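We close this part of the discussion by returning to an individual protein. Part of our work consisted of pairing the sequence of a single chain with a tokenised description of its backbone. The amino acid sequence and the backbone structure tokens for this protein are reproduced below.
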Amino acid sequence: MSSRPASPRVSHEYFIFFAGAITLLGFLARVIGLHDIPPGLHYDEASAGLFVRAVAFDGYRPIFITAYTGHETLWYYLAAPIMRIMGSGIFPLRLASVFIGTATVAVTAWMARQLYPDDANRSWLALLTAAIMALSFWHAILSRTAFRAISEPLMQGLSIGFLWLALARQGRSRRWWLWMMLAGVFTGLAGHTYLAARLFPIPLVLALLVFLLTSPDRGRRIPGMMIFGISAAVVISPLVWFFAQHPEAFATRIDQVAPRSLAEALTGWWQALGVFFVRGDPIMRFNLPLRPMYGWLLGICFVLGLLVVIWDTFTARDALGRARGALLLAWPLAMLAPTALATAESFVPSHLRAVGLAPVVALYPALGIVGLARLLGTLRRQALPRRLAGVVTPAATILIVLLNGTLTLDAIRRWGMEPLLYYENDGPTAAMALYLNRSDLPPATAYAATEHLQHPTLAFLSDRDTNVHSLAGGRTIVLAPEGDTLMLYTRSARPHDDWFPLIQNRLISAPPGPDGTPDFRAFLFPSNFSLDLRPIEPANFGNVIRLESASIHPVASGGVANIDLGWRITGVADQPDYAFTASLCDEWGFCWLLANLDGTLVRAVNRDYPSLAWKPGERLITRMEVPLPAGLPPSHNYRIQVNVFSAAANRTLPALDAAGGFAGTFAEVGPVVVTRNTFPRLETLPIQYRLEVPALRTVSLLGYDLPERLLRPGEHLRLALHWLSIGAQPDDATVRLLLNESIVLYAGDPVHGTYPLTQWAVGEAITDRYDERLPVDLEPGQYRLSVQLGDGTPVVLDTLTIEPSNRLFEIPGDVRTTGMPVVFGGQVALAGFTLPVRDVHPGESVTVGLVWRSEARSETSYTVFVHLIDASGQIVAQLDRTPAVGNQPYDTDLWLPGEVIVDDGYVLSLPDDLAPGEYRVRVGLYLPENGQRLSVPDTTDNAVILPGVIRVR
């Protein structure tokens, strides 16, 4: 920039006055209507508010906050004093960002003056830059929200300003070292502001390297650089130490949003470069969607400013000018990277992630305006351009203040009135929180259902939050143990539509939002409220929760089965994440799928009302959504098996009988009526091997499922055939499963003989499942598995490999047979056993071996239990599993009469605090689905205690 003034000189007093006036305008643009613009209180703002409250009132002093993918903490410490003075609320929370954003305007003017210390135009340049910053829509919007990112530009502006002040004054002022130290301090503090600030050192280091390499007195400059570096390192060191202790926290958010390919990264950069004056943030929460940072006029000035920077960089005559050029050229690329490279999980460009562009980004249009004035001033022979040169900068400043200020304020008003912003900003949840603060609410236990469990907006705004029980989604009604229940649902967590006729008369409030639909619904349920569910035989799960009622609605194959379940909490849960899951099972014992409460097929995820919050006496009404496969055959006899599972403990709560004994792992409700679906989405059929070959003129075989190709004689062949009816079925046809076209495994109508072809509708898909036992005398080798429908040509499906079965019919001589055999249910005999021969110690493990003999052919697979019991019969160690030979499961339904099975791998882990003494081993067999034991004559518990003891020393 030229040292010749392109505009009238501004005295120091006038500069202070005008800069103060612009800063005041910036403050007004950020504070007017702050409580309502933006409306509501977004999840992220509210979570920030909870941390600020903890810092202000609870002594919370974090270096880095690991929750919510990680937060730097400077903004929280700046906001805490305001909240401590003014109290907790939306206005005090956002006021911290207003003050920081306004301070950034003033710092921007000061920074611009320091960057051009010897330029005659620097006062106008500073005022223009401050005006652009003050009335920038995107920065004003960010200054109205409680996000830590707004603190980054302030620290960056202070860092650059003090750094250039020190570089320019070194040798001319005795305080240069103090300014250099302050520059380092603010550089270090920038690292405590926001993730994007981690790239701030790049343009700084580049500028300082250029300065050192081009400075004639670089040796004299090195001490200053050391002061800067040491100061920055000291301030940032707590964060560096934290990341060294918790390396996973450093990259959590980076890993989530980083591009997954080079093409994706290049696309992100192309989109990010348009943020200045082509295409801005598409998200309403941070912008009027797609509005760029600058309009077309300031956009032209921005381009001119970049050209001025390039010109000044290559024509600079001193090291400071070259360093400034390096800084200003590197700045946009470095500080755009956080949004350009955040493509994997978000949108590009993001005004929030691009916040690091400020405050320097406001300098480029100002440079363009001053550069234009300077250019006009060089046209000496033409009077008009010379006269225009003197008014360009003052006129542009006034125009920016008046026109851009008016447009910005109008844009803020329009933005704040957008209904979409209200809903994106969790307005309904905020309205629910304020409703809960009312003093005229009926005396009742309050439960609030929001989109997210323990929604921070509700927690921050509700005075009653500690007394409000949190739910997520609308799949659950909770009724208090005593008295009435106040149940609230936000717009995003509304209860199911078919519940409304049953609860509508309990509605006490449903205030409308901007689009006319209720923000939330509040229901008052009396203590005896019921959803008219059908009572069932109660199922007690672990003395924690009891299933008492159910209602199942008919559903078409391929649809979603809606199952309403009524529960009562009976005890304190020992795990925080007990979840309800449901299996849809047919009358032949096959369970088609396992679904969560929300219909997902990932086992045991409780997003609604976690067991950590359960209170004895509460009643729950839950809606389970079970998605049915498109090929599910129609029937009136499906059942739902419901269980309660903890992923944390990796165990299912046992169902208990009236005496408190084990009764299985599930409760069965039903029947479920499934009707046919003649318009299935064939692409959704989960077919393992697709064929799509004709089986008859009117039937196509779409494919098959074959989980196991390697089997042993007597084992079960599990197979699913996927049929498609492509025409009217004139006659029934027998399905025949064949091995080598000669061994018939099954012959009959589809679906276990219950669904003949003449009942099939045109267009219907049928998944036909088989569980056929292979002949026990089947010779080892390979066999072609094929299927034939009626008189159609057999379709070869796959090749089965039959392994030899090494069966044993003699009891080994090294086992103990004292007191043996003991016969269980006339089917299985315990013929011998092995026990440890040495004493053991607490914390060790002992191995018990069992030798079985098959007394009769069994069609059932039983589970073995092995208990280590003390003198009073109490269990101190236990293992339940199916019998095994050589660590391979060997189910009881595979055994031949007279066969001996050496089952020697029952490893019992002894508790560390087990008392010394003598312990016995108790053995039995039971059905895993209901806990029913095989009977043992002359016993009360259908179990046998092995002769001999295990001594613990």
Notes: The mean pLDDT is 90. The two ends are 90 Å apart (CA to CA).
